[in-house]
Design goal:
GO molecular function: ATP binding; ATP hydrolysis activity; L-isoleucine transmembrane transporter activity; L-phenylalanine transmembrane transporter activity; L-valine transmembrane transporter activity
Protein name: ATP-binding cassette domain-containing protein
Keywords: ATP-binding, Nucleotide-binding, Transport
CATH architecture of the largest domain: 3-Layer(aba) Sandwich
GO biological process, one term: L-alanine transport
Strand content: 15-25%
Oligomer: single chain
Helix content: 40-55%
GO cellular component, one term: plasma membrane
Number of strands: 10
Bound molecules: adenosine-5'-triphosphate
Order of helices and strands: EEEHEEHEHHHHEHEHEEHH
């Protein structure tokens, strides 16, 4: 059974069919890419997968459980985390606290324990600090744990966003243009980090990306969208050699 099973997914905004009859099966541990021209419906699919939009048609199952109709926080609890095209960090909080906010959804002690600072609170806080530092280390951000998020260079802010997504302990991590605005060196480093995250945490990753080098370099399978519908699916090699993809996406 696939970790993510999407069948006949569709949504209309007034007269616009933004996503139409999209099917997607992603296996556990797979690194999967979602590509297509501007306005093809990629971010809308992320919004459907995370409960921001409710589909007009179709089903979305994670680990066999249908999540259509669930709220974004219930879907996060079910194991889907995401990052956004535009960085959405808590800029005035430290790098460490940004990750800790995401760990709070796994908090095991009752709220009252934190208000009156019972012993359980200190134990949980210590565990949370350790866990957050461990995640920051994977992203080579542990040395900047005390920095304000806004003081990190752009490429590191993008990495922190991924670290924060990872801290919710997802089964499926959705990355919306993780390399947007990065220079080639930062992009190459990010590719390595994404691969490492997948291998280290054995999670499944679906990413939207315009950088073809990144997509074809790390994704095992790709789905190409055009005008909200599936244009092609397969390995990067199959997709890149597909004449329809070349015409629609690469404009050749
Ligand atoms: N809330 C909304 N209301 C109306 N139309 C919307 C809404 N969200 C998305 N759309 C439309 O749906 C289509 C798909 O948009 P979407 O943002 O998913 O494309 P995309 O493939 O992510 O594009 P890009 O690569 O530019 O980010 C576009 O025509 C967009 O204008």
């Amino acid at each position: 059974m696939a970790l993510l099973e999407v069948k006949n997914l569709g949504i209309s905004f007034g007269g616009l069919r933004a996503v139409d009859n999209v099917n997607l099966n992603i296996d556990k541990g797979q690194l999967y890419g979602l590509i297509g021209p501007n306005g093809a419906g990629k971010t809308t699919i992320f919004n459907l997968l995370t409960g921001v939009y409710r589909p007009t048609d179709g089903t979305i199952k994670i680990d066999g459980v249908n999540i259509v109709g669930k709220s974004p926080s219930e879907i996060c609890q079910a194991g889907i985390a995401r990052t956004f095209q535009n960085i959405r960090l808590f800029k005035k909080m430290s790098v460490l606290d940004n990750v800790k906010t995401a760990l709070h959804n796994q908090m095991k002690y009752p709220l009252v324990t934190s208000f009156i600072r019972l012993p359980g609170y200190f134990k949980a806080e210590k565990e949370m600090n350790e866990k957050a530092m461990e995640i920051l280390k994977v992203f080579d951000l542990d040395g900047q744990a005390d920095y304000l998020a806004s003081n990190l260079p752009y490429g590191k802010q993008r990495k922190l966003e991924i670290a924060r997504g990872l801290a919710t302990n997802p089964k499926l991590l959705l990355l919306d243009e993780p390399a947007a605005g990065m220079n080639p060196n930062e992009t190459a480093e990010l590719m390595e980090t994404i691969r490492l995250v997948r291998d280290h945490y054995q999670i499944t990753i679906l990413l939207i990306e315009h950088d073809m080098k990144l997509v074809t370099g790390i994704c095992e399978k790709l789905l190409v969208l055009n005008f909200g519908t599936e244009l092609a699916a397969g390995t990067p090699e199959e997709v890149l050699n597909n004449p329809e993809v070349i015409t629609a996406y690469l404009g050749e």
